[in-house]
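Hi U.,

Before I forget, here's the chain from the pilot set. I'm dumping it here mostly so it's searchable later in email.
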Amino acid sequence: MSTAIDLIKGIFGKLISSNVLISIKERQNPLVSEYVIKYGEKCPGLSINEDVSMDRETGWYQVLTIGVGTKLSINRASVSLTSSDGSMKLLIKLMSGERLKSSEEFVMTCGEPKESIYGKSVIDLLINLDVVSRFLNVIKERRKLSDGSIDELLRFLGNAKLGVEQDLRRLVSMYQWFEG
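Structure:
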């Protein structure tokens, strides 16, 4: 059986070889290495800043280090998706009621990389993609967005996850998750 670090290295290797990720600064541990998600040549002109409430709590898995993470119970999120200067930023503030539990920032480039995120954020995004999809679809419906940019972004992320989905499942089952 593979160890967690082997699985993580394999996931990043697959994402880099399929041109989903660009390695900016490599370190021995891929979770603290720096990457940027390569979205494409042109970012959609998005500017979204919305609160999304859920009718019931859902779990958000957050990787802390090799083999250890937290499972946050959330029922609300503040979602900001903006694009400018050749990149897109997705900022999600994870909340339980009015209490901020954590925030996650994901950077995608549509040209030359200018900023990067840690590998742990890439893993968090892929593990929680179903929750991110729910947030973005609620916003799409609420704002009646019909230009296809949200669907295109979710399709891109879904395809990225598809190539590493089995490894992600194995990784989640290997980790020790603490309630947060």
